Amino acid sequence: MQRSVTRLAIRLTALSAAVVAAFAAQAAVTVTGNVGTNPASVLGPGDTALPGTVAWVGTVSGSSSTGSLTIDNGSFLSLARLSFGAGSGVGNGTGLITGSGTQVQLLSVGNFGQTQRLLVGDWGNGQLTVSAGALLSTRGNQAPCLLAFHYCDTFVGAAAGDNATLNVTGAGTQVLIGQNLYVAQPGLAILGLDGYTYGTPGGTTRGTVNVTGGALLSTDRATIGPRHWSTNATGFERNIAEVNVSGAGSRWLVTGGQAVLNHATGAVGEGQAGIITANDSNAWATIRVSDGGVIELNGPNDTISYVNLTNGGTSRSGLAGGRTDMVITGAGSQLLFSSEAGVLNLARQRGTANLLVTDGGSVDGLWYSAVGRDGATGVLTIDGASSWVRLNSRASAVANQPSGTSQNAAMDIGRNGTGTVNVLNGGRLLVEATEYRQGGNSLQLGRDAASSGTLNIQGAGSLVQLTGISNTPGGGATETRNPFVSIGREGNGTLNIGAGGKLLMEGGAVSTPDHRRSTSLIIGGYNDTEIGGKGIATVTGAGSEIRLTGGDTFVGVAMGPQSNGQLTVSNGASVSANGMHVGRSGGVGVLKVDAATLSFSGQQTGGTQSGAFFSIGNGGGIGVVTLSNASQVTLSNLGSSGVSMSIGGSGNFANGEGSVTLTGGSRIALQSQPGLNSLTVGREGSGFLRLRGGSSIDQGTGVLHIARNSGSDGTVIMSEGSSITAGWVGVGARRTDTGDTDGGTGTFVLINSTLNADQIVIGTNGFLGGTGTINGTVTNRGIFAPGTSPGRLEINGGFIAEKDSRMILEVESDGKGGFKTDQVIFNAGQPLDLTGLNIEFRFLGDTNPVEFNNSELFTTDTFFQVKGTDGSLGVLDATFFSDVGFKASAEDYTIQGFSFSAAAGASDFTAAPVPEPGTTAMLLAGLAGLGWLARRRQVA
Questions:
Q1: Mean pLDDT, the chain, as a whole number?
Q2: Among 66, 148, 141, CA closest to 109
Q3: Are 597 and 570 in contact (CB under 8 A)?
Q4: What confidence score (pLDDT) does residue 315 get?
Q5: Is residue 405 classed exposed, middle or buried when 0-12, 13-18 and 19+ CB atoms within 10 A define those classes?
Q6: pLDDT at 939 over 60
């Protein structure tokens, strides 16, 4: 603030005092005590029009420093400038403007002796009450206020050390403030440095504004807890500012208006409707809206209307903000943005801000909100079943400068700062879009690299909901945007949902192939090309939920280069969408599901029109998924695209590394029309699937690929009574329209588990083995290995061995003179063709092949059996082995002279122990030493 406090002589004449005394009993304009004017004038006793006069109430004169001014009974007073409590820090001024029809107009030209219009506390103690239907206005005569270096503002506490209060109370009462309202300005000027003296160095300014009883306070703009305006402030000045709006019908209206935008150039334009708080590191602002009170911002639609709680301004400590505490409490209490482009910032420039919306309070009409911005810390808490915050507005390209793009509603929690939003005990946070704009309808946590954002949704009925509402039947270029949420966009984001809280994303806009409208939740990162951040989301407890509905919904856990994401769903919670990616496009994603449910359903209508999907580690990403304690994952779609699950690469995002583990009776079910579902473990990348503890995967008649394409690798291990059901299974093989072809390197191991499929194909680089049961026909081009050192595997179906296929049969000593062997049990009446099969007998550990041969167990009857329809076991006729090749190997023996036939068994052969590695190493070392010694002797 620029001001000159060089005052012309203040005349308190005996004549004026006598006039006041004579008319006091009937006067409507009354002064008592020390009241000064310039030029010298008499105020009252009736209507008084002195538009060029400055008045000070409560100045210092002699030993007295107290004065008062009362305007009542429908009287009128006009002045240029009016101040209360003006006098070297000790003046005490009070004012009362009261009564219906009573009116005070302040009309200064804004410079020289008329700088500013109203000062309650002008280096002193001031109090002004406007009540009972009276009117106080500083909005008249605005033309001179729009000239460079003209100032027509209002202060409640203007100088360091002031103590000031403005009360606006009673139905019909109005206080209309033009230009700027400053509450608790720590103004300071030092004679030797500024040329005049004003304010108390190191002093604390206290300013309070109360709007009660149905009254109206209307301002163009306001700063609650401003920054220092003097470059010579000591840095120890503090300001404590407070605004209270209380009671039904009580309103603070902020309208914007013309202002000087640059005093150096004289540029004039729309100054915007806005409230700034705690604009200095030493400022503390408090705003309370209660019992039905309302703060409303209603500026022009092509400009931003804003509330910046702790804005941050220039101070001794550089760009730094102070502290703001705002409470909106009670039914009907509200912060309302009634024009477009409403902005709510909670903390900027290293300051702090806390906003509590509780007990039926609300915030409505927002376009954009940031919680924790520019190195600051912000906290928004929405607490209680009738408490809510809604972002449902928009900003035009004209208003949204400097970007120049039109935007739907959006919220950032942590934007180059630290932000926390708590939605508790039935509170609601709502984001809505009803038309197409270039951006928005989004919620982002940890937006920028140096950001941290946390969203807590706790308690039954607590809700965060983002909605896209269609405005174009059938979709198209003008269709509304659907919601987007990012947890850890480029920074760190944390989402906690518990005790029945919900995050709902409703994509009501229609998505088409040409004009896609995705509804997406990304945990770690935000797209496939930009470096992403770190996101952690936890959903726990019965009734707690993340649910995406409508157009093209999907959840991404770690999407984009260097992104990291983790999603934990536990204890009865659920997550649902069209599909989910875990670790995509260079991201590293972790999904943990513990006694909880995932549901992926439906078919997208835009893009590739994917059916329900679940992709783990694709597009060069890494994904890790664990399902435990009877967790359930369901993929369902009866549409033409069916359903798909991929681990290690997918059709749209090739390559990647994925791992999925099911334990404790967990289950994955893929439901579609016949043949329209697929599960791939290693498509172009690397995939691993593990089932334990009675867990299961049920594809119905779907296709299971393990190492689908050349160059991929896939592994499936299931144990402890687990099962997989599919229509067709390829292990290192890929199904084609005409049959099948070889894929990558595939491994499928059963350990006391069951594989159900009509057809199982083992490709050239495939391996299928273990213990348990295979219900289906096996075609082998690779390796079939019953047992797991060793064990029994039953095939309840056909077995067809193609040329050069292999079967590995293991033998191991039981340590008691006996032997354990692998066994294959075929079922009677099923196709069996061993033509072209190569069988390798492997002797494990220190098992002696010759001793096994001497036991007379080295026959096909030991390794192959046939189960009859009555369950009895028989031997396999030797004719089945007429075109089978045999060989043997041992870990600890070298076998020579081996031959085998089904009819005669093994021939006599020899098996010499392989030297111990330690003995061989010692022998080689000894020989090397002898060579070194010989060379030494030759040299000598």
A1: 92
A2: 141
A3: no
A4: 45
A5: middle
A6: no
The strand pairing partners of 525, in sequence order, are 559
* Whole-angstrom distance, CA of residue 277 vs CA of residue 223: 6
Instruction: Name the pLDDT band for 917 (thresholds 50, 70, 90).
Output: low
**Residue matched to tokens 């909605």:** 467
Alpha-carbon distance of 417 to 770, in angstroms, equals 55
**The pLDDT value given to residue 195:** 85
**Would you give the DSSP letter of residue 879?**
G
* Residue 122 near residue 85 (C-beta atoms within 8 A): yes
What's the rounded Cα separation, in Å, for the pair 322 and 353?
A: 8
- Binning pLDDT at 50, 70 and 90, where does residue 61 land? confident
Token code pair at residue 267: 């540029």
Is the predicted pLDDT of residue 17 greater than 50, yes or no? Answer: no
What are 858-904's pLDDT values in tens digits? 999 999 999 999 999 999 999 999 999 999 999 999 999 999 999 99
What is the DSSP code (8-state) at residue 19? H
CB 670 within 8 A of CB 643: yes
Residue 751 has pLDDT above 60, yes or no: yes
The pLDDT, as a whole number, for residue 318 is 54
CA atoms within 13 A on the CB side of 903: 3
Question: From start to end of 330-433, where are the E strands?
Answer: 334-337, 342-346, 352-358, 362-366, 368-373, 377-383, 388-391, 394-395, 407-408, 410-415, 418-424, 428-433
- pLDDT for position 21: 44
| Distant-in-sequence, close-in-space partners of 365: CB < 8 Å, separation ≥ 6 | 336, 337, 338, 339, 342, 390, 392, 393
Neighbours of 191 (CB within 10 A): 9
Cα-Cα-Cα-Cα dihedral sign, residues 527, 533, 534, 536:
negative
CB 237 within 8 A of CB 160: yes
Q: Which of 70, 268, 42 is nearest to 150 (CA)?
A: 268
pLDDT for 148: 96
Q: How high is the pLDDT of residue 319?
A: 58
pLDDT at 918: 55
Rounded Cα distance between 849 and 555, Å, is 56
Helices and strands of the chain, counted as H and E runs: 5, 85
pLDDT for the residue numbered 236: 86
User: Phi and psi (nearest 5°) for 748?
Assistant: -135, 115
SS3 590: strand
Instruction: Pull the structure tokens for residue 650.
Output: 């997918």
* Per-residue tokens: 454: 């946390």
- Mapped onto helix, strand or coil, the DSSP state of residue 861 is helix
Which residue carries 């072809």 as its tokens? Answer: 741
Which tokens go with 647? 């681990």
> Over 90: is that where the pLDDT of 922 sits?
no
- 625/582 Cα distance (integer angstroms): 8
Mean per-residue pLDDT, 51-79 = 92
Cis peptide before 849 (omega within 30 of 0): no
> What mean pLDDT comes out for the span 556-564?
97
Amino acid occupying residue 717: I
Going by their DSSP bridges, the two strands 910-913 and 893-896 should be labelled as antiparallel
Percent of the chain with pLDDT over 90: 86
Nearest to 125 by CA among 101, 93, 153, 148: 93
Which of 588, 670, 590 is closest to 636 using CA atoms?
670
The most distant pair of C-alpha atoms in the chain lies apart, rounded to whole Å, by: 143
Among residues 705, 805, 690, which one has the least CA distance to residue 746?
705
Residue 493 has pLDDT above 50, yes or no: yes
Neighbours of 30 (CB within 10 A): 21
